[in-house]
Amino acid sequence: MLCSRLIVPLPTDMKKGLVLEGGALRGLFSAGVIDVLMERGISFDGLVGVSAGAAFGCNYKSRQPGRAIRYNKRFAHDWRYCSWRSWLTTGDLFGGEFCYHVMPEQLDLFDTKAFDENPMEFYAVCTDVTTGEPVYQKLMKCSSDTYEYIRASASMPLVSKVVEVEGRKLLDGGVSDSIPLAFFQRMGYEKNLVVLTQPEGYVKEHNKLMPLMRLSLRKYPKMIHALDTRHIMYNKQLAYVAQEELKQSTLVIRPERKLPIGHLCHDENLMEEVYKEGRNTCMKQLAEIEQFLMDK
């Protein structure tokens, strides 16, 4: 449950932000949350998404509730979407060309017109593999590069190729900034709704696959360092979120239990279960969310 809030007067017309962490297919929880928010007509001045948070969150700007769960279930058994065959043949577990170009442009159309016309600011967080630092890419108009930045944000080390876009070499944004609440606060977003995909009390542990990470990314020592210390960064961010949660300017939505899904899943029923858990959690907190977002 949420902690008690400090009663602090808020100024009017505060910029309202939506912060979505990643978690691969745990992100279907977030998809359920944002679909309820969209269906209720709730708008934000900006959204920042990391990994699955960016891949699914872009549908908020294009105003397409239901799209994320629909295409995940539709292509659950399509090897081009996600499979070890895709990894062996293309270098990407989640097929880069299929997921970020063929699917949104031909098979489950992404509403580029709505995306372009929606004034909401949309940021995808990536990690620059040469520096190990986060890249916060603002994406206001849809283009091939827009899809590539979202792809980079969701490209997990070991099972994804480094994504090169506009002269940058990028991978998973969660490596360098998993919960970019502080970033959005620096950008002037004074009221933020944060959607997490781990339950309260979760503590991230050191990555047991670091020996393979070091081998796979040996050309990028700063990226290796970021991966090696990611658990420290993430746990500090959780502590910061908890601190900010006590204030009237931050509200957190999180699952009540550990979600019964891993990074990979081909079970449409399990996907639907996690998605519905997000919807149900949001509905339980809906009155609180609406009150939180109301101008003072």
> What's the count of strands?
8
| Radius of gyration from CA coordinates | 18 Å
- The helix count comes to 13
What is the H-and-E element order?
A: EHEHHHHHEEHEEHEHHHEHH
Mean pLDDT, to the nearest integer, reads 94
Structural class by SSE content: alpha/beta
Share of helical residues: 40-55%
Task: Describe the protein.
- This protein is of the alpha/beta class.
- The chain has helices at residues 27-39, 52-61, 67-74, 84-90, 96-107, 112-117, 144-153, 181-186, 210-216, 221-228, 230-245, 268-284, 286-293, and strands at 16-20, 46-50, 121-128, 134-138, 163-165, 168-172, 191-195, 250-253.
- A hairpin with a 2-residue loop joins β5 (163-165) and β6 (168-172).
- The longest helix has 17 residues, at 268-284.
- It is globular, with a radius of gyration of 18 Å.
Keywords summarizing the entry:
296 residues, alpha/beta, 8-stranded mixed sheet, 8 strands, disordered N terminus
Please give a quick description of this structure.
This protein is of the alpha/beta class and about 300 residues long. It has helices at about 25-40, 50-60, 65-75, 85-90, 95-105, 110-115, 145-155, 180-185, 210-215, 220-230, 230-245, 270-285, 285-295, and strands at about 15-20, 45-50, 120-130, 135-140, 165, 170, 190-195, 250-255.
